[in-house]
Design goal:
- By secondary structure, this protein is an alpha+beta fold.
- The protein folds into two domains: 178 residues, Thiol Ester Dehydrase, Chain A; 109 residues, Hotdog Thioesterase (Thiol Ester Dehydrase, Chain A), CATH 3.10.129.
- The chain is 15% helix and 36% strand.
- It is built from five helices and 13 strands.
- The strands form two sheets. Strands 3, 4, 5, 6, 7, 8, 9, 10, 11, 12 and 13 form an eleven-stranded antiparallel β-sheet that branches.
- The longest helix is centred in the N-terminal third of the chain and has 18 residues.
- The chain is globular, with a radius of gyration of 19 Å.
Length: 288
């Protein structure tokens, strides 16, 4: 376990094990000047707005919690949005793989953790997991982030930004780097979405969690409600701006080599309606 480790509870109390001090954090003004922590963790109780008819947490709700942890930890490490903006840079999520082995239930309190892992070419890797009350991992994820020059809208190498940040060697939520997903043939158009106010984030484009909601909303309700386990792999390829329309295409896919095999395996691709540019690709597997 890393030396610097924190648990942020419902009462917003943060405990640093190494120096054995407690800092009370206000909800609106967290103390980002506290000592930098190698692993960021929060106790999260599953609320009503995070569940579906099955009384368990939705995929988009899981991704939303992970996003908030990544933002909080980046602030604590001194590479949050304001620090990055001051140098004309921003973090952009490029790829993510999420494995849900059990969906948390309404009212259940889980510990959700996030930590920087390593570098892979232009990617900075960040891992996540969720632990049940017995400390057993029930959700695991790995994400690939790029740093972009906001003026040129081009990626830059992450070494300078990651210098001095503990990369948690040996602490792995997953054993692989999320891969680039292949283009699928014979897909059918299943939905379309216009990028509206609630889709747009601080960086001025559609937020990564909005794409997950678009996928969920294009599927039959029972498939998502009945799923006990799931795996999502997603590539974010081109940003979508306010007012742009994205056509959502999907198809079934083979899922060889997985035991037990998923009950459903689907591929999705979002293409901008006005020029056909691919905004994202995703693959979702569901076990009932």
């Amino acid at each position: 376990m890393p030396k610097h480790y924190a648990i942020l509870s419902k009462s917003r109390v943060l405990f640093n094990r190494e120096y054995e001090h407690i800092a009370i954090l206000s909800f609106l003004g967290q103390n980002w000047d506290m000592e930098k922590l190698a692993v960021w963790a929060e106790n999260f109780t599953v609320r009503f707005n995070a569940i579906d008819k099955s009384d368990t947490m939705t995929l988009s709700a899981v991704l939303n919690v992970f996003q908030e942890l990544a933002v909080s930890h980046a602030e604590n490490l001194g590479v949050g949005r304001e620090a990055m903006a001051s140098t004309g840079q921003a973090w952009i999520l490029s790829r993510m793989s999420v494995q849900i082995d059990r969906r948390p239930t309404y009212g259940e309190t889980i510990t959700v953790r996030s930590w920087p892992r390593s570098r892979e070419k232009l990617f900075a890797l960040r891992d996540f997991d969720s632990l049940d009350a017995q400390g057993k991992p029930i959700i695991r994820a790995r994400s690939c982030w790029i740093i972009i020059d906001m003026e040129k809208r081009r990626p830059i190498r992450p070494q300078t930004v990651l210098e001095g940040i503990h990369l948690n060697e040996g602490l792995d939520a997953m054993s692989f780097v999320p891969a680039g997903l292949e283009e699928r043939k014979s897909m059918l158009k299943t939905a379309e979405h216009k990028a509206l106010y609630n889709d747009i984030d601080y960086n001025g484009h559609v937020n990564n969690v909005s794409y997950i909601r678009w996928i969920e909303n294009a599927m039959d309700f029972p498939l998502l409600e009945q799923a006990k386990r799931s795996r999502l792999d997603i590539n974010y390829m081109n940003e979508v701006h306010p007012g742009e329309v994205v056509d959502l295409w999907s198809s079934g896919i083979e899922s060889a080599g997985e035991s037990p095999p998923p009950a459903h395996a689907l591929a999705f691709e979002g293409k901008k309606a006005h020029d056909g540019q691919t905004a994202f690709r995703a693959e979702l597997r569901l076990w009932l």
